[in-house]
Amino acid sequence: MMQHMTLMQEGPINTLALNRDCNKVVVTGRNVFKVCEIKDTGFVERDNIRTGKNSNLNFSCNDASWNPVDEQWLATAATNGAVVLWNIQKSIKLKQETVYNDHKRTVNKVTFHGSEHNMLLSGSQDGTMKYFDIRMKAAVMTFVSNAESVRDVQFNPHQCFSFAAVSENGTVQLWDLRRQDRCEKQFTAHSGPVFACDWHPENKTWLATAGRDRAVKVWDLGYRPVLEHTVTTMASVGRIKWRPQRMYHIASCALVIDSVIHVWDVRRPYIPHASFNDHKDITTGIAWRGSPDVLLSTSKDSYLIQHVIADAERPMEKANPICVTYNSKGSLTSASVDRNSKKNKHPTLPRKPKLESEDYPAVRCSIYVFENVKPTPAQVFRDCAQNYWLQTTTGKSLSEICDHNAVVAANAGRLQVATIWRVVKLLFGFSGLEFAPTSAVASVGSSRPVPVNKEESEPGDSSKDASSRAGTRHQSGNVAFPTQQTGQQSEPLVNGSGSNNSNSAPTSNSNERGVSDTSGGVSEEAESEVEDIDSQIMLSHIASGSHFNTSDFFFGDAEADVLNDFGDTSDSVQGSKNSGETDQQQQQQQSSQMDWILPCEAFQLRHEIKDRSPPPEHFTSHCFAGTRIEAQMVEVEDTTSALLCLPGSSSSLGTTCWSGVSNAVEMVYHMAEEGDVQTAVTLILVLGDRIRHLLNEAAVEHWILAYIDCLSRCRLWNTAALVVKLSQCESVQLRFDVYPTHCNLCSRALQRRGWLCDSCKTITNTCSLCHLVVRGLYVWCRGCSHGGHLLHIREWFARNTDCPTGCGHVCEFD
Fold first, then answer.
1. Considering the chain, what percentage of its residues have pLDDT values greater than 70?
2. Which of 34, 33, 83 is closest to 59 using CA atoms?
3. Residue 255 to residues 12, 61, 76, 353, 525: CA-CA distances in angstroms?
4. Own/partner pairs for 213-221, CB < 8 Å, 24+ apart?
């Protein structure tokens, strides 16, 4: 019964070698050279060859090989470039028989022939292989590999005169001993240096190689080299050995990092069949002890260990029994081990008999496939790119574009993007202030000085004109009213009946001081001051929330009287630039000049009037005769809230109020950070100059190029060209103004201005239908580079969708 055994040496061990009966093992290293006997109870040291005063570099070994026919001969590869032959059965301490100094650099590998005991082969760092006859004192033949170094050589156990050599340039060479001038076969096996090779003990044409590319490859060398299996490891592989009596099992150890020895089944290359993790440092040598159940190994941790396969770890048993994957269309597939499934009692077809080398237990597995019925992200991207409206493509207004794009995003399942488009509509869709004459949309204006008359005019019983009430309606606390522009010409006063009188006394412009003339009229300057006074009084009342329209609310008798009295006083002046203008023209002019002010509260206390005027009943109608009307400018504190500012207004402190542009800029940056360049670029193209000056030009250019690249990958050439046109980036437009043409045979870009390919020397502008050279307008596809006459291509794509050459490409022809 084999058991696990260990033996510690004085220093690191570089390699080991077994005798023919596998009951003795030699271990060698820089300071170790011993022969041990393997017993059931453990390792027993029989001979220490490195004893005495004559120890030199010949005792420092990189590799060792025991003669499989005559056990007295042992060969070692020294670090000084010598191949040393030892006679183990000598009774004297110095057992060195012959030293071959034919190599110029370090020897990496030595090996004896499997049946001819006099044949010895070596591979060196100098790029040569030497064939020795141990009966002679020098090398018989030299094989040059034309590589920097040879890392391993192995005799073919199935062909007497053949051997394989691997080198650091990644090539494998097959040589015949009877021909030393050139190799029989040579091929590149790995992408880096090859460190080890081993012939299969049963299959005559299989050769396993291992290298720095972290792969173990199995080649079939029957007719030409064919890669049969590949095992991927986690580190560079330094040693490999086929497992005896197992067709597909091979053991490997790493050259660096990993100290675990793995036994692989080449048919399952991702999970080891068994693993041994007894060593604490890099494993330097492995050998099967004539049985598939016992493995010997040495390491730099100075231990010689015998492993038993029954004690090995089974990574397969620790593997996850459930796996999940999905494809590009969003379909999900899961596979799991059905542990609780009952055996099928119904008769089934006879199965293939289990092979001897198949050690994995049979399990029942269930596979579930869930197909995705929703559109994939690529499909959503294509739908949105094809259906989005841009600013200059449709001639629609911004509100219509936002509504359409919101519907497109919602239909594609992108509800967040749809909400963004609705918000953009709210922020910018009404920025033009397209109001009706009686619109009540309000904005907060800046603080203005309010003139207060020293003397109030006599209250009249004039009726309120509808035009004077335009924009003074109170709706749920939102007050809108017009103010006259600075420098507006003064308007004539209305008569006592409240209507314009064409027979009234004309005003005089000669009185520069604005004093009324003898006819009872006032100067033009005085009329302007009166109108400004009345207008500003109305503004102050509206801003304080004390001016209302009685048609909007129902009041008691007392409240209605007070409001009527107040309205009579405030509406004593009616303005009109020209008495011949119609009411509609006045309303249009008034709406174009209006400023909108919204109080912070609907019912706010009036400001305190410091200079109170006497009651109206103390004055008579003749009090204003010959009286000069003077106005005094009084600053009134603007108590409106800056939070109620709408686009285009400014606060009383002189700061710009909230306009929504900053929110749009934040939305663009947020979508770009989330990876949604489609929405970010579309917002930039739709809003244009509204937000373009607040964005980083380098970032905008990067987003546009990324979006164009995505459109090109989806073959949306028309949309990509439109984005280039609307990008307003010179670098982007210069990059995509010129499209390179390619040869339809070799697919290389054409370097000349004509249609001659410099690579394959063919003319590429031939028609795909009539096969004649196109002279004039040539239509070609950017996908497959085929084309032809415009008339021929148009007739073809009227009935077909594929390329007329039969290349299989689905061309797009508009």
1. 66
2. 33
3. 15, 17, 20, 39, 104
4. 215/190, 216/240, 216/250, 216/252, 216/264, 216/266, 217/189, 217/190, 218/250, 218/266, 219/172, 219/189, 221/174, 221/185
CA 282, CA 256: separation in Å to the nearest integer? Answer: 6
CB 741 within 8 A of CB 749: yes
C-alpha distances in Å from residue 402, one per residue of 408, 429, 708, 736? 10, 8, 22, 28
Identify the CA nearest to 513 among candidates 627, 624, 622.
627
Tokens describing residue 772: 């004649």
User: Three-class SS string for 222-233?
Assistant: CCCCEEEEEEEC
Say if residues 302 and 8 touch (Cβ distance below 8 Å). yes
Question: Exposed/middle/buried for 86, CB within 10 Å: 0-12, 13-18, 19+?
Answer: buried
Q: Which helix (H) or strand (E) element contains residue 216?
A: strand 215-220
* Closest to 770 measured CA to CA, from 751, 789, 744: 789
Strands (E), 353-459: 365-370, 449-453
Top-confidence range, 560-574, 590-604, 688-702? 688-702
Quote the distance between the C-alpha of residue 197 and its chain's center.
Answer: 42
Q: How far apart are CA 284 and CA 255, in angstroms?
A: 8
What's at 220, amino acid-wise?
D
Query: Residue 149 has which token pair?
Result: 């170094």
The tokens of 593 are what? Answer: 């000049």
Cα–chain center distance at 207: 43
HSE on the CB side for 59, CA within 13 Å? 16
**C-alpha to C-alpha distances, 332 to 112, 321, 372, 380, 526, nearest whole angstrom:** 56, 17, 7, 19, 85
370-405 burial, b if ≥16 CB within 10 A, otherwise e?
Answer: eeeeeeeeeebbbbbbeebbbbeeeeeebeebbbbb
Closest CA to 221 of 264, 170, 162: 162
Q: Is the pLDDT of residue 627 over 90?
A: no
Q: Look up the pTM and report it.
A: 0.50
Kindly tell me if the per-residue pLDDT of 673 is higher than 60. Answer: yes
- Residue 457's pLDDT is 39
**Cα 160–chain centre separation:** 58
Counting Cα atoms < 13 Å in the Cβ hemisphere of 754 gives 10
State the sign of the Cα–Cα–Cα–Cα dihedral 264, 268, 269, 274. negative
Tokens found for residue 129: 């292989």
Domains of the chain, residue spans: 377-427+660-738, 749-813
Q: Is the dihedral of CA 451, 452, 457, 463 positive or negative?
A: positive
Q: Residue 307: how many CA atoms within 13 Å on its side-chain side?
A: 25
- Print the SS3 string covering 117-182: CCEEEEEECCCEEEEEECCCCCEEEEEECCCCCEEEEEECCCCCCEEEEEECCCEEEEEECCECCC
The number of beta carbons lying within 10 Å of the beta carbon of residue 692 is 14
Distance (Å, whole) CA 756 – CA 773? 12
- Quick one: pLDDT band at residue 357, thresholds 50, 70, 90? very low
CA distance 237 to 223: 27
CB atoms within 10 A of CB 2: 15
369: β partners: 333
